[in-house]
Design a protein that fits this description.
The complex is a heterotrimer of chains A (787), B (338) and C (213).
Chain A: E1 12-19, E2 27-34, H1 59-64, E3 79-85, E4 91-97, H2 99-103, E5 107-112, E6 122-124, E7 137-143, H3 146-154, E8 157-162, H4 169-172, E9 202-203, E10 206-210, H5 222-228, E11 231-239, E12 242-243, E13 251-256, E14 261-265, H6 270-280, E15 288-291, H7 306-319, E16 323-326, H8 329-335, E17 338-339, E18 342-350, E19 356-365, H9 377-381, E20 388-395, H10 410-427, H11 432-439, H12 443-456, E21 470-482, E22 490-496, E23 501-505, H13 514-526, E24 533-537, H14 553-580, E25 587-590, E26 593-596, E27 599-605, H15 606-610, E28 617-623, E29 641-653, E30 658-668, H16 676-695, E31 726-731, H17 749-752, H18 754-766, H19 777-783
Chain B: E1 5-8, H1 12-18, H2 23-28, E2 36-39, H3 43-50, E3 58-61, E4 71-74, E5 78-81, H4 87-92, H5 94-99, H6 101-108, H7 113-118, H8 121-126, H9 150-153, H10 174-181, E6 185-190, E7 193-198, H11 199-202, E8 221-227, E9 234-241, E10 252-261, E11 264-273, E12 280-281, H12 283-289, H13 296-306, H14 318-337
Parallel strand pairs in B: 1-3, 2-3
Antiparallel strand pairs in B: 4-5, 5-8, 6-7, 6-8, 9-10, 10-11, 11-12
Chain C: H1 6-14, H2 19-27, E1 35-38, E2 41-44, E3 54-55, E4 60-66, E5 69-75, H3 81-88, E6 107-110, E7 113-116, E8 129-131, H4 133-136, H5 144-151, H6 161-174, H7 180-186, H8 197-212
Helix pairs in contact in C: 5-8, 6-8
Classes of the chains: A alpha+beta (787), B alpha+beta (338), C alpha+beta (213).
């Protein structure tokens, strides 16, 4: 992605911005920024709205049930869609007859995947795509109700020719395994930039190896590195396939009208949905409107319209009626994405003082029929080590496609790397924190380790030394995540006569609190309260903004919001200055009032002051400008790292193998926290998802039939209330002078370290290490030698 | 769900008149004749219908039949409760809490608060197993009249460890574990009238009949559940372990009912849930306890005896150890209850 | 959803399934039944005078009290209460996530007790009282649990929120002085994927305190 703001601003200004960590090393730094950037924002304690625990602006709608999600929207004449899914993991369709479904009363549209425009009754085998996983969509029906659509789907007659299949990572990479693809497939942009590249080789079901990530490629001399090591630790790790389990399933409601395609989408990116549908249906983007007012969870899996969205749009186009197509739960679990599993061989060499001399990683992972199973960035990037090499392989299997999932690659990678560092510390007879002090160059993580350890009361006893059958243990692990930014993010702010203020953007709030932080930055700029701001987002009618992913949203959208508010404020102030006969620069806005610092008689409420505007509205649109000088990359990848350190305490019942996470202390930073309460919620969410990954969640495939068999939310086990540890968040303000708000996201770093911290705590409790997730009673009992 | 008719049965007699199949029968004969089946809370039946495993032509709703939701306790007659008593009703009964501790515990750890408010005890005893192959419409397993057991050759980490030859499904009710430990009985009412069946005979193992889990006939419904009275010497305990403490199916549950003369055990009943296709009494282990003072050592011996003869499958060997350790614990808990 | 055509209605009348007949069936106050005793329990073994009405499979009338108001809807017997609320009554606060009773997003109160509306048939609740999340805050006043959820940031994406709110408010109805364990127990069936649990616990305990004042 090119940076649209990359051209050098004609005029620049020098800004003195807060830099560093308050209470630690806070100072100021001078940066060159565009002349129209707002003045430097002081640190949070000097602000009245930004940095405050402001209530979520849309919470009222959520607690009363008034919030309308895509799944809730009903339009007049609306039809409901349902899919026929493949019953086989690998099969040719010999013939397909949809005539009975077409004729079924209440049915208004039937489409066959890949042949949507062909409204025929029957299809021959040579026309139809090969089926590559059980649950793959074959055809879709639109009918007056979901019940009728399901009945019609059952009337579709399909004849299949089942073929040999492979659903297991280890089996799929053996020579002679049934092939998922005969030909090298196109790399369709593996979300999260993990794993294979277009140029990588594909041999059998193996694609790769990939030796680079955006953090770079191999470095140094491996042989020399390991030769210099006093200690070498080498282990094999495995992680499971994790499914996103969005509470609102994937889907959208398409309303195709001659002049406009309107789409209500449960998506993380209104813009992507619009652009993809416009391209697929050869429409100008101006004729596609995508609306996402509320959405029930995405976690990386909801960019673009997806197969269900494309089908809904086709069915709407063909039937002339609005069509809502939300996946059923089973299809959601199977076909809407997952975190690929991994099998990692990690080897680390170190000197006696802990200095790392070499890190090498070989990894395999399957994203089913998709790509993106790389895990190497943590090993590559977290610690200082001159010699590094990785080989990452994607392995195709006949299973549902992977998708970006909250810190793609890093969650898997951190489990291995942070488990191994723990083991290395023990080998070196060092405290795990002391070892990290030695090998971790990150300043922010250093502060997090220190403050986090104090809060946690870090004192590790000898592994497995608790008496009695139930043993306690503690562990620590770290996270790294790049501080990305997406420059193509714009916001409009509108000040209305009468004093109301609107902020508008295409950006969506996926539950992270984007609406609220936008209200906060705008309110801060205009001297108002967050609740005075009406936030209208999640609609491509408004200025374009980024998809919510990569923990980029706060980083990208809050500067755009502040900048737009600043520009609107300048216009408003100039009108007022003219009316009052004062210099515009003397106008201040605070506490809901507007005043001139040069004339004490000029003071009135904000609402009152808007009456002096010559037009009914003053508005301004602004974008996220390039990172302040010294950071501008010209790419969407910004500079910097988001670190995190998490501490976990567990109890392990050695008679039953039952593990309980008792307590987690999570020390994090995300630049300037705009709303600490929401940041806490995000961290809680990351930790809890990490608890699920560590102990419970596991997609289970039947090896004989190739079916995903735990698609229910009773058998795919997620943490519920009693699985929630006592979570203490510790947020460290960290000013880096990146932008006009200097905020960053937190979603991903919150999820990376948890499972490793838990695994290390389990080791400390029982004295035996578990190298495979999830850590089930079965694995604990096996590790203890009880079975 | 398929379209079906719905009738509210005003009385047991009419329900029996109208019904023509048990749910297991309806599943097997799905395609051949219209099934008229009864429902109470509906939480299991709707699940089966939603999966397309059962497609009844008519549901006969029992939930409004007066009198079937009573629970009484009497020193002589024991505990009696109707099939419409909900799990929550049992959980919240002071009589149960006081006299049948293991039963109370099993009720309190079943499903979710919402489901406990809906699910009835009759339905709980009649519910179908939770095996993921049985519950999948894509797998025509033996329990569905097919010829393959996918669990034996597939993913069986949660399946049975005893009598796994035909179908290693485990009985889904952890309440049944406690009820059998208390030597419960079920009253079935059919066209010929009522019959009392001890729970030990009520459940059919998969060896006895793989396609249905109880002796209830096509036109029979549970009309009463009876537990013998307890006395001052009765001690009981129950423990359930799932992968999670919140809502989860049991990996292993154990109920123990002891009659104690001081420290000496006069009589013992030990029952395993989630171990086999029926709640499983461990009589050899019980015998070890009888007539002896119950010490930790004896409890462990009994526990080891209790898992003798287990025939675990590929992925569930851990359950043997789990049952052994839990059994020891539950025996000691029962003794400690005092 | 539209009401059935007059034609369908008259078909039902012919089958003896008039709305009136149904509602009487639902109430089960039909005279002529005799209670028999078996053991200590008694139930009706005898037949009422009229045979019970067979309803459906087409749409039938169901009347119940919804958020304090008597409502009547026409639904097929296979319609779940969750579907009836969402699709027939446009009360979409009640969410469907798993549709199997495993997530409790669809929690409503049936005669004051939390139940899964996805696992109940609409016809099952004839004559009974249903409270949905929309009914919790009637006439503009929020329930203290709702207020506390806002105050303590107990919502994220919000999809589990209505179910959580209904579970927590029901807890405070029956236990005004809950412990953290009680809150966990009451919400043990409610699935949240965003991770609002800690704030849900905090909010519910705070609401309990506030209600006692």
């Amino acid at each position: 992605m090119a940076n649209p703001n990359n051209k050098k601003a004609l005029e620049t200004q020098k800004l003195k911005l807060p830099f560093g960590i308050p209470g630690h090393n806070l100072t100021e730094i001078e940066r060159e920024a565009a002349a129209d950037e707002p003045p430097a924002l002081p640190i949070n304690e000097k602000l009245s709205v930004v940095g405050q625990r402001v209530k979520r602006v849309d919470a009222l709608q959520k607690v009363t049930g008034a919030a309308k999600y895509t799944a809730d929207i009903q339009l007049p004449g609306m039809l409901y869609g349902w899919f026929l899914h493949s019953p086989y993991p690998h099969a040719r369709i010999k013939s397909l007859d949809v005539s009975a479904a077409r004729k079924y009363p209440g049915v208004f549209g039937v489409i066959v995947q890949g042949h949507e425009a062909e409204q025929k009754d029957s299809f021959g085998g040579n026309e139809l795509p090969l089926l590559r996983y059980a649950g793959q969509p074959v055809a879709a029906v639109a009918a007056e109700s979901v019940a009728i659509a399901k009945e019609a789907v059952r009337l579709i007659r399909a004849e299949y020719e089942p073929m040999p299949f492979v659903v297991q990572l280890d089996e799929a990479r053996k020579p002679g395994a049934p092939l998922v693809y005969e030909e090298t497939i196109e790399d369709k942009g593996n979300a999260g930039d993990v794993g294979v590249k277009a140029a990588d080789e594909q041999k059998g079901n193996l694609r790769g190896p990939t030796t680079r990530s955006f953090a770079g490629g191999p470095r140094g001399d491996m042989e020399k590195g390991f030769a210099e090591a006093d200690v070498i630790v080498e282990q094999e790790y495995r992680t499971q396939v994790q499914t996103h389990c969005c509470l609102e399933t994937h889907g959208l409601l398409a309303d195709w009208k001659q002049d406009m395609l309107t789409v209500y989408a449960s998506t993380q990116s209104t813009k992507d949905v619009r652009d993809e549908l416009a391209e697929l249906f050869a429409l100008p983007t101006s004729k596609v409107r995508v609306i996402t007012e509320f959405m029930g969870g995405g976690f990386g899996s909801k960019f673009g319209p997806g197969y269900m969205g494309v089908a809904a749009t086709w069915l709407s186009k063909l039937s002339g009626r609005p069509v809502k197509l939300m996946l059923g739960r089973e299809a959601e679990q199977i076909s809407a994405g997952n975190r690929p599993n991994s099998h990692q061989f990690l080897k680390v060499g170190a000197k006696k003082d802990g200095t790392l001399t070499a890190v090498s990683l070989l990894s395999y992972g399957t994203a089913g029929i998709g790509l993106g199973a790389g895990v190497g960035r943590v090993a590559q990037d977290m610690y200082v080590c001159p010699n590094f090499k990785m080989e990452q392989y994607d392995v195709f299997t006949h299973a549902g496609p992977g998708a970006a999932f909250r810190a793609p690659g890093n969650v898997q990678g951190a489990f291995a790397m942070e488990s191994l560092i723990d083991e290395l510390a023990e080998k070196l007879d060092m405290d795990p924190l002391a070892l990290r002090d030695k090998i971790d160059a990150s300043e922010i993580r250093g502060v997090q380790r220190k403050q986090g350890a104090e809060k946690f009361g870090w004192k590790r006893k000898k592994a497995g030394s608790d008496p009695g059958p139930v043993k306690r243990g503690i562990g620590v692990a770290q996270a790294t995540w790049p501080r990305f930014v997406e420059m193509d993010s714009s916001v409009m702010v509108r000040i209305n006569k009468g004093g109301s203020v609107e902020v508008m953007s295409g950006v969506q709030d996926i539950g992270t609190g984007t609406k609220t932080i936008l209200a906060q930055v705008v309110a801060e700029e205009l001297g108002l309260k967050a609740e005075d701001i009406t936030v209208k987002i999640g609609d491509t009618t408004y200025p374009d903004a980024l998809g919510s992913g990569g923990s980029m949203t706060a980083e990208a959208i809050t500067p755009a919001g502040r900048n737009a508010a600043y520009q609107a404020r300048l216009k408003f102030a100039s009108h007022l200055a003219a009316a009052w006969g004062v210099d515009a620069e003397t106008i201040e806005m605070k506490n809901g009032e507007v005043l001139s610092s040069s004339d004490a008689s000029k003071k009135m409420t904000f609402a009152e002051a808007t009456k002096h505007m010559p037009t009914s509205q003053v508005l301004a649109t602004a974008s996220r400008s390039a990172n302040y000088n010294g950071f501008e990359s010209g790419q969407w990848l910004g500079h910097g790292r988001l670190g995190a350190v998490q501490f976990a305490e567990v109890s392990v019942d050695t008679e039953t193998g039952f593990v309980k996470v008792e307590r987690v202390v999570a020390a994090h930073s995300c630049g300037r926290p705009i709303n600490p309460m929401q940041v806490e919620s995000q961290i809680n969410g990351g930790v809890i998802m990490g608890v699920g990954y560590a102990l419970y969640e596991d997609r289970i495939m039947d090896l004989n039939t190739g079916h995903h068999i735990n698609t229910g939310l009773d058998t795919y086990k997620l943490p519920h209330a009693r699985e929630i540890p006592q979570i203490e968040t510790h947020i460290i303000e960290h000013y880096d002078a990146h932008s006009s708000t200097d905020a960053s996201g937190i979603g991903e770093p919150a999820n990376i370290a948890t499972a490793a911290a838990i695994a290390n705590a389990v080791y400390n409790a029982i004295g035996v290490r578990i190298y495979e997730l999830p850590i089930t009673p079965q694995k604990v009992l096996a590790a203890l030698g009880s079975i | 769900m398929n379209r079906f008719e719905y009738v509210q049965a005003p009385s047991v007699k009419e329900a029996i008149d109208m019904m023509n199949s048990t749910v297991p029968e309806a599943l097997i004969k799905k395609a051949t004749s219209p099934a008229y089946v009864v429902k109470a809370g509906g939480t299991d039946l709707l699940d089966l219908i939603k999966e397309g495993l059962v497609e009844p032509a008519r549901l006969i709703d029992l939930s409004k039949i007066p009198g079937l939701d009573k629970l009484t306790y009497d020193n002589k007659a024991g505990l009696q409760f109707g099939p419409l008593v909900t799990i929550a009703g049992l959980e919240n009964s002071e009589e149960v809490k006081k006299n049948y501790r293991a039963l109370h515990e099993s009720a309190a750890h079943a499903a979710t608060p919402q489901l406990r408010n809906m699910a009835t005890m009759g339905g709980n005893l009649m519910q179908r197993p939770r095996c993921w192959y049985f519950r999948s419409s894509e797998h025509k397993c033996r329990k569905k009249g097919g010829f393959t057991c996918y669990a034996q050759i597939g993913q069986n980490q949660y399946h049975g460890i005893f009598n796994t030859n035909v179908c290693p499904c485990v009985h889904p009710s952890s309440l049944a574990t406690a009820l059998l430990a208390f030597d419960g009985q079920v009253e079935l009412t059919g066209p010929q009238g009522r019959r009392i069946v001890p729970l030990s005979e009520f459940f059919l193992s998969s060896e006895e009949n793989v396609t249905q889990e109880t002796v209830a006939e096509s036109k029979e419904i549970i009309t009463n559940i009876i537990l013998p009275p307890v006395d001052a010497s009765t001690r009981s305990a129950f423990v359930k372990m799932g992968q999670r403490e919140s809502y989860d199916w049991s990996i292993a549950d154990v109920a123990v009912v002891l009659k104690m003369d001081g420290k000496r055990c006069r009589d013992a009943r030990i029952v395993f849930g989630a171990a086999s296709s029926v709640p499983l009494r461990r009589e050899d282990a019980e015998a070890l306890l009888k007539g002896k003072p119950v010490t930790e050592k004896l409890a462990m011996e009994a526990a080891t005896k209790a898992v003798e003869g287990a025939t675990p499958l590929k992925h569930n060997g851990y359950k043997v150890k789990l049952f052994e350790n839990l059994t020891k614990r539950v025996i000691m808990q029962a003794v400690a209850v005092g | 959803m539209k009401n059935p055509s007059e034609e369908q209605r008259s078909m039902q009348e012919e089958k003896g399934v008039s709305r009136r007949a149904f509602l009487r069936g639902a109430g089960l106050t039909t005279a002529g039944t005799v209670a028999l005793s078996t053991g200590l329990l008694s139930f009706k073994l005898e037949s009422p005078v009229k045979p019970p009405a067979v309803l459906g499979p087409g749409e039938v009338a169901v009347r119940f009290v919804l958020n304090g108001q008597e409502r009547e809807i026409w639904v097929e017997p296979r319609t779940t209460l969750a579907q009836a609320l969402r699709e027939h009554l446009s009360l979409t606060g009640t969410k469907v996530v798993c549709d199997r009773g495993s997530c409790s997003a669809c929690t409503v109160w049936l005669d004051g007790k939390p139940v899964n509306s996805c696992m109940a048939l609409a016809v099952d609740v004839a004559g009974r009282e249903i409270t949905t999340v929309e009914g919790l805050s009637q006439s503009g006043t929020l329930h203290p649990v709702q207020e506390a959820f806002i105050e303590h940031d107990a919502t994220m994406c919000g999809f589990c929120t209505p179910g959580m709110v209904m579970s927590c408010a029901a807890l405070l109805n029956r236990n005004p002085n809950p412990s953290l364990e009680d809150v966990k127990s009451a919400t043990s069936g409610n699935l949240c994927r965003c991770g609002t649990y800690p704030k849900v616990f905090e909010a519910t305990l705070a609401a309990a305190k506030k209600m006692k004042k």
